[in-house]
Every structure is written in C-alpha cells, then in structure tokens.
Design goal:
The protein has 504 residues and is of the alpha/beta class. The protein folds into 3 domains: 35-370, Alkaline Phosphatase, subunit A; 375-443, 2-Layer Sandwich (Arylsulfatase, C-terminal domain), CATH 3.30.1120.10; 463-504, no CATH class. The chain contains 12 helices and 19 strands. The chain has helices at 7-28, 60-68, 82-91, 95-98, 133-139, 192-206, 229-236, 249-271, 305-308, 335-342, 359-364, 426-443, and strands spanning 35-41, 70-72, 75-76, 143-148, 170-172, 212-217, 278-284, 309-310, 312-315, 324-326, 330-331, 373-377, 387-392, 395-400, 405-410, 475-476, 482-483, 488-491, 494-497. The strands form 5 sheets. The protein has an 8-stranded mixed beta sheet, with helices on both faces. It has a 4-stranded antiparallel beta sheet with strand order 12-13-14-15, with helices on one face. α6 (192-206) runs parallel beside α8 and α7 crosses α8. It is globular. The termini are far apart.
C-alpha cells in the first residue's frame, strides 16, 4: 500500500527538489561569455605609456589596465606598419598567409629605380575565404563593432574589403562622424578621439545585455598632430628627461587625449557592472616615430626593435591575476586565438592559425614554450627595405634581401641592437637561418631575392607628407625621411612646395 504524505510534509520536499534542480542547472550551465574590448592604438611607441616607464606622458587609464591585469614586457606588432599588423591581429596569421604585407601605395610599387631588389606590392585586403575573429564571434551570437581605423580594404557596405563584410555588424570611421581624412579637429572644436569614443560608448549602451566585441582602433597617434591646446600647454611646462628626451609636447598631448578616451570606455564598463565580465586588450599597430623609441633601434617601417616593439597589457578582473608581468615574446597574431579561447569558441576551420592563445599563461603563469616568432616584409616603404626575421629565445636573426646579408642580435643583452653577432657566432646564424628558411617555405612567403634591373644607386624615392608647425629647418614626411624647406615634393600625386608656416 502506498501512503501519501500530508501536504505539510510534501511542500518541503518539493521545495528541496526545486532547490537541488536549480543548483544542478547552475553548475552545468555555462557562464556568460565575456565581452571583449580590443584597443589598438596607431603608431604608439613601446615607451609611450607609464607602465613601460615613460615619466613625461600621463597615461593613468592605460596604466590602470596594466595594473589590474598583466603586462607583456616583450610585446611585438606582427609587422612594422599599419595594415599588415591589423590583418595579423584579426586573423591570427603571419603576413605570408594573408598576403597583406604593407600599406599599398603606388609610391612603393615594385621595380622603381631606387629599389635594389624586386619587392611585392602585396594585397590591400584579406583573401575572401579568410575568417576573422569578428566572423567567429558574430556567428556565435556576439554583437560586433569596429570604431575607428580599418585599413585592410577599401570596400563599404558588406563587401569583402569592408569591416561589415568581415564580421563587424557596425563600423564607424572618422568620416561617419564628420571628420575629414587625417583630421584631428572637425571644424566645430570637436576632437577626433572624443568623437570616436562617443560612438563606442553609445554602442556599448545599446549592446550591454549580450556578449559584445568592440574593436576600438584609434587613429591617434598618427602624424600630423593637431592636439588640444590645453594639453600642449601642460606639456610645454614640463621637461622630458632621460629616455623621454625628444618627445614633443604635441605628441605627448595626443597620447594623453587617447588615454582619456580609454578611461571613458573603462568607466562605462564599470558603471554598467561589466568590468568583471570583460576581457580588455591594449596594444599598438607598430613601433613609434624616430623621436619616441629610445633606447631602441629603428622606428615604424623597420624590423628593428623600435619598429615592432609595442606596449601590451591585458585585463580581466577575477580571471586574470592582477599585477603580473610576462617576459616571453608575444605578438599581435596571438590575440585572435586568445580572444576565442576566452569566449570558449574554436578556431576557424580550414585555415591555419599561427598565433597561440595566451589564456593559460595569463591565468596560471604557464610558459608558452614557443620556439620562435617570425616576421616577413618583402617590400619597400620609406627607410624600410625587404627583410625577414625570426625571434628565438634571446636571439633575433634578420635577413636583408638587398644585401644579401644576415644580422644577429642578442636582444636581451643588447636591446638597442648595436652589436651584430653574425660574424662572431656563425653557428647560431646557421641554426636560426635553417628555421627561417623552412618557415618561409612552409608559409609560401614571397622572397624579394631577384635583382631589380632598373636599379639606379643614385635614384631617390618619391616622398611626401605634411608640414608640421614648429619645424623650421627640417621636416619629417610621414616619418619616412627628411625634406628641407624650399624643396618641391610629390605627395599623393600633388606637387607641394615646402614653406615655413606663419608663427613657426
């Protein structure tokens, strides 16, 4: 005989069963996927931020990201200039995989008389079949947006060369907020970093209820500068010392304005209660301008440390322990697999991923145990010439196709790359050379090893640029070479006569 329990006894059992069921569901249900905020600054040098040691420029908000998470002391851009690094960042691939080697510009077309070897023009957009991190996130329910600079394709409205054709549901660039090309001010007193940040904050508000991926790609700190006057005055009242010597007030003011915008984004996450649900990645697309890279050799456009070493910091409170510094080399391409692992998503099928996820190291401190990182730049741009490079342990081997020569540096002992060890350590050169040549073959890298029959040692490259206020005797044109006052130069197909601006 089955006896029924009295109602007063049945209720606690039902309540207990419901509690256990809810507890079980909570255990097996996946946590909300994290939001991702990927912050990429344009042309920011390795030492432009406080957490790397800059004492002149104020970057409290960027430094807060570093303090609340982890710093990569040897963080590298995957290329020495803008477009290829962005392609590597979004695909997790080395440059030979996607073919975006440089900014495509007719001034740097192959076969010009000043070029010793035959370079390649490369592609200005990703192959149609290549998936980006945004493609994967979007297809798995993420809201996705790019606010700022794209620069790996000129298409719009969903074409393969456009962000909206590469996984970004929303794309806002400067002309969408009424800024002309390369302008920092819009004619109404509004500053570009502020305007782009406004767009980012609005988008976060609209998408706060679901996991989101915000790729915030600042146009700063690219020349020519037009900084906020109050910030310029602040830095004119200060004197840069030590390794900060050479940094101009205009440059420092531009960096601080970027920092302020990043602070607004972080404050928005805090206000919405999303800080602990958000992975924030901060880095730059290439090394800095010649006067901000001390003590490193080279600058933007070159494969020496000054051209590819960049600041790197990652924060995810509650998941990534705070206050950590990791010294193993990492590169832009590593952030794509890192993001996907953080989101619990697989890498794209049917395409190679060269980067490695940094999540295990960030969570536990485990070593990456990667044998080498590679770079390949078979192009000419300004002072940059065709080179290939690997970093293995403390050593860096550079292949110069126009030599042809190899250079070897121990960057731990010699970060300024002043002492070429190629002649004194030929065994190490041969060891690393085998790795580099095998990698070139594996990735199908274009080799700039053919002589340019049109080469003329007396020929000069086409140069162009914008006159910067305050430079009276010497001018940096796109940070690619000097142009004297009074000289006539070709810029973007227009002949310009360089003159001094009124008032300096």
């Amino acid at each position: 005989m089955v006896r029924s329990l009295p109602a007063c006894q049945r209720f606690p059992l039902r309540t207990g069963a419901l509690f256990l069921l809810a507890l079980f569901c909570a255990i097996i249900a996946p946590a909300r996927q994290p939001n991702i905020v990927l912050i990429l600054i344009d042309d920011m040098g390795y030492r432009d931020v406080g957490f790397v040691g800059n004492k002149y420029i104020s970057t409290p908000n960027i430094d807060k990201i570093a303090k609340s998470g982890a710093v990569f002391s040897q963080c590298y851009a995957s290329a020495p200039n803008c477009a290829p690094t962005r392609a590597c960042l979004l695909t997790g691939q080395y440059t030979p995989r996607h073919g975006v080697y440089t900014v495509v510009d007719d001034r740097y077309a192959p076969g010009q008389p000043h070029m010793k070897v035959m370079s390649t023009k490369g592609s200005d957009e990703l192959p149609p079949q290549t998936k980006t991190v945004a493609d994967v996130l979007k297809s798995n329910g993420y809201a996705t947006a790019l606010i700022g600079m794209w620069n790996i394709g000129r298409g719009r409205n969903g074409s393969p060369g456009s962000p909206t054709g590469r996984g970004f549901e929303v794309y806002k660039r400067p002309d969408d907020v009424n800024f002309e090309k390369d302008a920092y001010m819009d004619g109404k007193g509004r500053y570009l970093s502020d305007a782009l940040c406004d767009e980012a904050l609005s988008w976060i508000d609209k998408n706060k209820a679901k996991p989101f991926f915000l790729y915030y790609a600042e146009h700063s700190v690219h020349e020519p500068f037009d900084p906020k006057p109050a910030l310029v005055a602040k830095y004119k009242a200060k004197t840069p010392t030590g390794l900060d010597k050479g940094i101009t007030p205009e440059y420092a003011a531009t960096v601080e304005a970027v920092d302020a915008s990043i602070g607004r984004i972080m404050a928005k996450l805090e206000t919405l209660g999303l800080t602990k649900d958000t992975l924030v990645i901060f880095t730059s697309d290439n090394g800095g301008l010649p006067y901000v890279v001390n003590p490193l050799r080279g600058s933007k456009g070159l494969l020496y440390e000054g051209g590819i070493r960049v600041p790197g910091a990652v924060s995810w409170p509650g998941v990534i322990p705070a206050g950590k510094t990791y010294d193993e080399p990492v590169a832009s391409m590593d952030f794509m697999p890192t993001i996907l692992e953080a989101a619990g998503l697989p890498l794209p099928k049917d395409q190679p991923t060269d980067g490695v996820s940094l999540m295990k190291q960030l969570k536990t401190g485990a070593a990456l145990n990667r044998n080498a990182i590679y770079w390949h730049f078979p192009c000419y741009i300004g002072k940059g010439e065709p080179m290939s490079l690997l970093r293995a342990g403390d050593y860096k081997l550079i292949q110069k196709f126009a030599g042809p020569t190899f250079e070897l540096y121990n960057v731990k002992k010699d970060p300024s790359e002043e002492h070429d060890l190629a002649k004194s350590d030929p065994a190490k050169v041969e060891e690393l050379k085998k790795l580099l040549l095998a990698w070139q073959k594996d990735t199908g890298a274009f080799l700039a090893d053919k002589k340019n029959e049109a080469y003329d040692p007396n020929a000069k490259e086409q140069r162009g640029g914008v006159l910067l206020p305050g430079e009276e005797e010497f001018l940096e044109f796109l940070d690619l070479g000097g142009v004297a006052l009074g000289e006539v130069v070709l810029f973007a197909g227009i002949l310009l006569h360089v003159v001094e601006l009124e008032g300096g």
